[in-house]
Structure prediction request, 152 residues.
Amino acid sequence: MTELSALYQAVVLDHNRAPRNRHEVQPHDGEADGNNPLCGDWVHVEFRLDPAGCIEDIGFYGEGCAISTASASIMTEVLKGRTLDEARRIGERFQHLVTDREAPLPAADDPDLEKLLALAGVRDYPMRVKCATLAWHTLQAAIEAPASADSE
Prediction:
């Protein structure tokens, strides 16, 4: 195992053992549920926007493998303070990162993907891509769906 892949594995394990932003967001402006029926992973994502339209708080809860949990945890860290348009763009870049095995990895200091590089290795394991992208697809659904009435 290379030094870099060992570092990435450590990041994934750390976020799995101590997920960041694993909490409900009340009140919230968007929420959605996602699941991966192939493995049983499921996640609920909620976010609240500040008056400027930036993600003020974002949280998740659910059950999943280390990759699924780490991806949701890292996602919440990366997206706090970002606009919904930025969240969509970063989500698209992340999807590309984990699915395009031929694409070069982004620079380690890329402000959008720096923390997400720890998950780049799933591109070599197609069955794990759904684990890594579950929270991101769920966030996309939360952005597109209006908040429920009980979130106010």
Observations:
- Strands lie at 30-36, 41-49, 55-63.
- The longest helix spans residues 126-144.
- The radius of gyration is 15 Å.
- The CA atoms of residues 117 and 136 lie 15 Å apart.
